[in-house]
């Protein structure tokens, strides 16, 4: 099996030559730095690429022919032909057995049967065969058809033949397919209209899975009632219900009687014959099943009595000390006899000494059985230590509509770790093994994403499917992994705290001593210190913990044996080569990329080194890095390399030498979950699976990053616990900007006196000193301007200043377990209040205030953007009044210490009637005193709820629950301002149902942004429409905004999404050119690796949409997609559909373009090399015509598509992350690359949409970089906030500067003054320079190096003495770090 997976790939010779010629130019950093930096480059190894489309290019390669049975022609017997379509194959063997038995008897008729799996109908040829089979069929049967595009295909085919068919039976499926039912006079064609008796079942009920349950109740009682009703109609309805009973009974006997009943009653040639059939054999709807038990049990006590009396089990297994694991099974697998994979899991668990309680349910709601059989009715405590669902479905609702709150409620009562393992449904074992994607996208949506909303973890594929019989079989290696992990989670519930061993893992990225403990927005060491203090109080064995967090840093960072400033971290363990190979079964596989161990990473040449420090039963270790970030040649490879030996040794140490009971990955994020392997549903040769081994993984993850948290969940089996990002504050004004603001207010009071012109000229010169002349057109100094023009100039400068002042930024770093104080939460609440929430009937505060003075807030925003002075002033007043009213409200809910006291009581007294509501009191002194009180009340009640959530703290509590083997409540990740349900933190983060986006609201917002983008581009480009826009789709952004950027792409090409009955989006339709009112804009979509993993269905949708648009019969000047596709098809000699490929990403299992790694580690020679990385790593396309092929390299099409781009575009959607905060944004920026690819060499316009506030903006990239520099890097409020976090803060400042250099490298859009001002802020100011050097000398060295590099690469022109000073500083700090005193 392993050989199927590691597809070898080698680069063609020419490519390898190109690479080596690059790596020979060794003029790296050495040319900018005063002394040789030590650059180690790991062993080179050949890389190779092979990716082929298998068969029809779809995921499901099986054929219906294995389900076809044709009887030996007996001329005297009539033939009855049956065609069936099902979701899963478990009915195949049972139904085939029934038909073979009937044909053997040769009593009434010969039966011909053929079956299709829903997924097979994607293939055009299979679909044609299906339609042909229906033409001479007597009976059609369908079940569980819930995938919309396929449901519509089934409907179209069956509808044509419905009147001719003798019987059509459809069991629970989408309403469109259910309406096809007909048995004599019984039909469901009215389904969904109120007069239909079945309509009641399909109403969108609160308890969605209740549908299946009410159906089951009906099934039990109706036949008895209907028997006594004379009419044919009632008899037909009775037979429909009996059919459903037979079908749900699923055994060969039941299915045989089912076919006899339907044929005898409805097939005309058998009308006169009396066909005998017996009633359905009914099995329990829910109960407990064990393969060795004599029967199914309805009572857990009886089951346990049988268990205790078992002769085949040893005493230990029956004893009180055995861990107990609950299993949730699907009844249809048990009744159809397709249960060998269940048996394997039960036997494996028992062989490992665990007792099992396997429960099943017939409907789609497992919450009842969970409460009934797994919770002790007397003590209300769980009877098990952990539970595994082997169904793969959400706990309530299966593949149809889910009821997550109901599921969470049941699981909270159960309170044990909840694992959801996966049987392969749409693929055979071989198809899955060969797939780089892993699981089929539809299965990921139904059986990975939906269970995550219930708090499910560990999506391990434990069963495969046989292509011939359709039966499931256990995958033994995977079953072992699943069972061991379930028992390890169970052990956490049973072990005492004093015995538990915890390995806390921190990250160091990019690799440098100044970067140990990297995590987004988190003060890592202060947080670990607070966690350890808490665990110690709680009874965990923590010894030798230093007095304060700073000393903790010293312990981990410095090797006490060596001199104080040695470059080495503290070594906790030296692992010899033989020991490493013995403990690490996959060590050989790493040699292809890294040579023989130990290699030169994390090693001393003889041993592999594990860095960290042990405190009693707690180990704090430093996760090694990828290892190839310093090697430009490796960064060019399109597939990422395996982990290196040091990386593998670290996890072998944690699991097998330190013997951790759990590992706690600390902060966002490490590299384990981004190692190569299948995207979802890994096999035993995928690296993340091998590395994490059997250790339960708990992972602190930033609440605003649900997409990468989801990758950690799926690829490293993590229980992700969210932490808060630091409270946001307004950027405020400083230095010249503050002076400008004072000048403007004096202008407003004196503009009509003689001093107006004089003040305006001061405003203009101060604005120039602040470099605002790049953002606002300023008249020449001394130029005469009219009063009206003066107002406009002042208005525009004022508007820019207000934009800087009100920009939100997270100040400082979060410490786990320290929620913000109420006053720190004010800015967050002001921003929550600034958004309209029509679905909750809440108006935004700015819109309520604008209405008071007879204006619409939208118009005020527009006016202010244009620089109309009175609108800028009004917007400032609205903003101030909002802040004031909310501060007044918060002040009333806190005590003297500034903590929020019981909000509920305080609120009730505040929300009483009368004049004394604090916000009304505040408003009474402003021009907004007549604001609508009712609207304000509704808004402030909502804000009161939000305030409670912001200050709640459960981050430590949830960690302790996870370590105690309890259930951690799930919650969405995202932006707390858009979606306050993200709070309180400390929840098990999940993303969203990938088929639910884009929502209608996202489509609305997207239209506004796209229209503004096109307006802006036309204005900057002589009124011409952009023909192509190159843009990026991010995973997290689309989760936070419910698919806004995805919707922008759809709107650019002029299509709209169409949702099905369950609100899932799997189809699009074109918008007419008349309605669009402009040409269709072509797009080149670069999806991040994370977006590709989470939203593969949406990539499929986009690709289908673009190809559909390329094939529309429209004039080329109105459809640029078609225009370019035709040109490219001609140039490349390919079909138009292939030329219209526009959806690209990385190869499966690889992430990012690596430009970020090259920039952070200064391991690149020139911009061309960065552009080559982008092209080689990002040119993998997704093809909706062959989705099973995964990502295939289409570099030629990618380059041609990019060469037509007139504009590049990205989105910013939340205040915490902007362009220079993370390296991802410039890593995906193709601005300079497009310029090189364009025939005319013209630089494309680069735009950034900013939807972080209610007033969405489209700015140029350079405007956004300037705004970012002014509000973050150069803003005392921001950098002092960072400095207050000490060691970590210095690193944050250095990171912003490095990311700024990244933007210079990919787009050239950074102004010289940004570097100049940064240099005077951090280097010219002696006091500042010493603070930086003392707090974190390693990061300070990197800061100095980055300044030198910016100058050496030509991005910053400055005086010779500035450069001389930097060189001197570099040598000083080098000496300090190496401990040389001169």
TrEMBL record:
E.C. number(s) listed in UniProt: 6.6.1.1
User: What pathway, per the record?
Assistant: Porphyrin-containing compound metabolism
Q: Name one GO cellular component term.
A: chloroplast
GO biological process terms, semicolon-separated:
chlorophyll biosynthetic process; photosynthesis
Q: Name one GO molecular function term.
A: magnesium chelatase activity
Domain (CobN/magnesium chelatase) spans 245-1362
Keyword ATP-binding listed? The answer is yes
Per its record, the protein catalyses: protoporphyrin IX + Mg(2+) + ATP + H2O = Mg-protoporphyrin IX + ADP + phosphate + 3 H(+)
The alphabetized UniProt keywords are: ATP-binding, Chlorophyll biosynthesis, Ligase, Nucleotide-binding, Photosynthesis
Q: What is this protein called?
A: magnesium chelatase
